Amino acid sequence: MRLILLGPPGAGKGTQAQRIVERHGIPQLSTGDMLRAAVSAGTDVGKRAKAVMDAGKLVSDDIVIAIVSERIDQPDCANGFILDGFPRTLVQADATEKMLSTKDLDLSVVIELRVDDKELIRRVSGRYSCAACGSVYHDTDHKPSKDGVCDKCGATEFKRRPDDNAETMASRLEVYYKETSPLIGYYYAKGKLKTVDGMAEMDAVTASIESILAGL
Ligand code: AP5
Ligand code: ZN
């Protein structure tokens, strides 16, 4: 199963991707996570990406396409993968198609999570994650069951993203509508698009996604 989770910042792509990983045993390929890892490691790519990410703009197509292309060749992607936050431009979508067709592979489905702007801003401004395993939480909606302890790994340190502030979020949303939302029509025309109400409660979103995956 090879699927794309498409949606604006804060739509729940990362949250739902983690749940698909647990249920289906295929890896989550998040370009945002990969770029943040490169920033932390201080690699050349990380140095070039940091200012762009902090401003809420898109890192260049060449860089992200190269990262994903290398990642999907890893053995753990042999049975499928979830693309989370990629592709994000029409150039990236065309590159994805080429990457897969040279390997004789096809995309199973593109799942669009639809959420309105006010809710996206609310979600992103309350978001934090486990510093050890990356599990995502929210100040009011989704706290760990034991205060200050990660449900998944038991760690007690958490962090917030530097781009989760009102100013950068405005830029991320603008970029989404301009650069990424055209992919909705692109995948609809290919008969690959399924849209889910991302405004619903987390478990309900998971149930909608599971019913799409069950029908593949
Ligand atoms: P990236 O890391 O991909 O960020 P994003 O797309 O902005 O998406 P987010 O991670 O913010 O949101 P999400 O949809 O995963 O939501 P989440 O599940 O966390 O990219 C960051 C930057 O990297 C980009 O701005 C760009 O610079 C660069 N980049 C990355 N990929 C690139 C590419 N392909 N090309 C170029 N540049 C690239 O949920 C959000 C919050 O809401 C959480 O707190 C969660 O607990 C809560 N929540 C989730 N679901 C629900 C629900 N149903 N109800 C209530 N709360 C919920
Ligand atoms: Zn954890």
From TrEMBL:
Enzyme class at the top of the EC tree: transferase
Record keywords: ATP-binding, Cytoplasm, Kinase, Metal-binding, Nucleotide biosynthesis, Nucleotide-binding, Transferase, Zinc
Keyword hit for Transit peptide: no
Gene3D superfamilies: P-loop containing nucleotide triphosphate hydrolases
Residue sites binding AMP per the record: T31, R36, K57, L58, V59, G85, F86, P87, R88, Q92, R161, R172
Pathway(s) where this gene product acts: Purine metabolism; AMP biosynthesis via salvage pathway; AMP from ADP: step 1/1
SUPFAM superfamilies according to UniProt: P-loop containing nucleoside triphosphate hydrolases (SSF52540)
Stated role: Catalyzes the reversible transfer of the terminal phosphate group between ATP and AMP. Plays an important role in cellular energy homeostasis and in adenine nucleotide metabolism.
PANTHER family linked: NUCLEOTIDE KINASE
Subunit record text: Monomer.
Family under the similarity heading: Belongs to the adenylate kinase family.
Domain notes: Consists of three domains, a large central CORE domain and two small peripheral domains, NMPbind and LID, which undergo movements during catalysis. The LID domain closes over the site of phosphoryl transfer upon ATP binding. Assembling and dissambling the active center during each catalytic cycle provides an effective means to prevent ATP hydrolysis. Some bacteria have evolved a zinc-coordinating structure that stabilizes the LID domain.
Name the record gives this protein: Adenylate kinase
Organism whose genome encodes this protein: Rhizobium halophytocola
